[in-house]
């Protein structure tokens, strides 16, 4: 079998999905593709099970907040082909008051907590997740703290006013 | 021998509905239970000694590192990484430095890379000592823990000699080390190579063919490779199931490709195999350190950082006397350095598995987004579902063999 490389991955993905999968970039050799929320499960299932690709190891799921963009949330998946040692990054840009994307838990059990963490910090709702609750923050928290508009320190604190520190 | 776990129901959301007759006992293990070795909670339903179902609650020491990192320049993020897996902070520090160096395209001199390898392998030994020692304590063998703890102390002395700190080391800088290893440090590393093997051998003899230890651990919490991969396990616990995935071997960083070492794998994926994999990894780490010391001798002496004045702070005494050094110092401290817009994922083999740094940089003074792929967090999610049907005492040693470090779990 030929050594799997980024070009083969691009060809396979475009053959299967055509316009649905866009090739974004290859920063530091890691192929990055983007797709839509409605087709993400198909893409993930395809790269996981396709005999040529076999990205069967889910490394990470996380999100990024771009408040100035039209579609302001980006969910990022890192998958890894352990046999051929190639990584692939898949991005999905979504928006809306409650950004929603299908859950990857049917494909990987390990997606469970990664998606809970992403929900906890960004408020991205993973549809079909068996147990979508907050994981690191307290249940009563009403904000999603990793969104850019949320300040690092609580602005309502009275014990850290600047004049106490001579500023 | 119990059957390997092949299928697991997802996180027990039905926890409180499955006991209409109120016959089961609900038990809190944690948040500050001695058996958890860290601050996290498991609420389990038990039927006698057997666990029926359980729910993990984590986040007790969540410190919002990812948020803080968005407000700090690169070199101030290193102390945050210390506090992820605080049993082997140098690996986290090096992983972060290498992520930034990958972003900035900085190539390090070979000698610096070997120095890093030594520090990382020492940290790995220190971490595995803790995990295996504690596993012994949890199975009722206390003395082994005490034997090796002295050696861990010695590793911390080496760290102290290299960087001045012991636990949260903040070791090295972006582009190399802040100073060269001194004579005493080299001497101590060599001494460690001499004094540690007999101790490790003795430690091994206490456990490896110990009937009680085997009875307690063999076949306990056995996991198939398919399940482990599906749960994105990595590190020694994945290798104990028979999958030979080690970042040092598959995607070598810091010149690991030049070293000769084996990747130990297990066959059953049970607690005993995890112990053995960690134990063998310590021997391999010793091998690597030996080779690294030999290699360092062949490199030009006194080189301890790359020549990147834009990112590496000049020596302090020059800052007061030399105009150029002052300018660089000012630019670095004020964050006036030119950095490319890019994104990087860099993974290192932490003591618990694949420790990844996903850095998105927009060219500003601080990262736009930094995500830690923390092996403890990913590995631990299987604990509650896999505990169903297990004896409490087995679940406890299963937990200690996963080597969950609360700091890494919660970030």
UniProtKB/TrEMBL annotation, chain A:
It comes from the Bacteria. It catalyses: a quinone + NADH + 5 H(+)(in) = a quinol + NAD(+) + 4 H(+)(out). It is found in: Cell membrane. It is a peripheral membrane protein. Transmembrane segments: none annotated. Residues 36-154 form the NADH:ubiquinone oxidoreductase 30kDa subunit domain. One of its GO terms (cellular component) is plasma membrane. Its main location: membrane. Keywords: Cell membrane, Membrane, NAD, Quinone, Translocase, Transport. Its EC number is 7.1.1.-. One of its GO terms (molecular function) is quinone binding. It holds the Pfam family Complex1_30kDa. It is an enzyme of class 7 (translocase). NDH-1 shuttles electrons from NADH, via FMN and iron-sulfur (Fe-S) centers, to quinones in the respiratory chain. The immediate electron acceptor for the enzyme in this species is believed to be a menaquinone. Couples the redox reaction to proton translocation (for every two electrons transferred, four hydrogen ions are translocated across the cytoplasmic membrane), and thus conserves the redox energy in a proton gradient. Belongs to the complex I 30 kDa subunit family. NDH-1 is composed of 14 different subunits. Subunits NuoB, C, D, E, F, and G constitute the peripheral sector of the complex. This is NADH-quinone oxidoreductase subunit C. It comes from Sphingobacterium corticibacterium. The gene is nuoC.
From TrEMBL, chain B:
GO terms for molecular function: NAD binding; NADH dehydrogenase (quinone) (non-electrogenic) activity; quinone binding. Transmembrane segments: none annotated. Keywords: Cell membrane, Membrane, NAD, Oxidoreductase, Quinone, Translocase, Transport. Residues 138-410 form the NADH-quinone oxidoreductase subunit D domain. It catalyses: a quinone + NADH + 5 H(+)(in) = a quinol + NAD(+) + 4 H(+)(out). Pfam families: Complex1_49kDa. One of its GO terms (cellular component) is plasma membrane. It is found in: Cell membrane. It comes from the Bacteria. The keyword Acetylation does not apply. NDH-1 is composed of 14 different subunits. Subunits NuoB, C, D, E, F, and G constitute the peripheral sector of the complex. HAMAP family: NDH1_NuoD (MF_01358). NDH-1 shuttles electrons from NADH, via FMN and iron-sulfur (Fe-S) centers, to quinones in the respiratory chain. The immediate electron acceptor for the enzyme in this species is believed to be ubiquinone. Couples the redox reaction to proton translocation (for every two electrons transferred, four hydrogen ions are translocated across the cytoplasmic membrane), and thus conserves the redox energy in a proton gradient. NDH-1 shuttles electrons from NADH, via FMN and iron-sulfur (Fe-S) centers, to quinones in the respiratory chain. The immediate electron acceptor for the enzyme in this species is believed to be a menaquinone. Couples the redox reaction to proton translocation (for every two electrons transferred, four hydrogen ions are translocated across the cytoplasmic membrane), and thus conserves the redox energy in a proton gradient. Belongs to the complex I 49 kDa subunit family. This is NADH-quinone oxidoreductase subunit D. It comes from Sphingobacterium corticibacterium. The lineage of its organism: Bacteria, Pseudomonadati, Bacteroidota, Sphingobacteriia, Sphingobacteriales. The gene is nuoD.
